[in-house]
């Protein structure tokens, strides 16, 4: 999951973010989820879960639910930004498309990886729900 999330982060950052209001949220979600997922993985791999008294099954479920909801919204916003490829804007008396062909291709890839990441977090959410509920 964090691998696909990192790809979303890289792809959106490399598209020069032509729509900062939409793609700013996508960047925030992908960077935050990437960082927290690596931190969560590090806690589990280091064995700290045995030292910290908490309901880890519930925390796992709550984390994956939150990230799934945020990533689903980020996927929708990235898809909306990508769909504006044919929108033309008038800048200094020259009508040009909002996204160049290169930026459009990068945004398509970012949309696909955002969808894949959303599906991965959804599957993890389902597995976390099965572990949490007896």
From TrEMBL:
Keyword Transmembrane: yes
Membrane-crossing segments per the record: 25-49, 61-84, 104-129
Name of the protein in question: MARVEL domain-containing protein
Domain MARVEL span(s) in chain numbering: 1-133
Subcellular localization(s) per the UniProt record: Membrane
Record membrane topology: Multi-pass membrane protein
Keywords annotated in UniProt: Membrane, Transmembrane, Transmembrane helix
UniProt source species: Pipistrellus nathusii (Nathusius' pipistrelle)
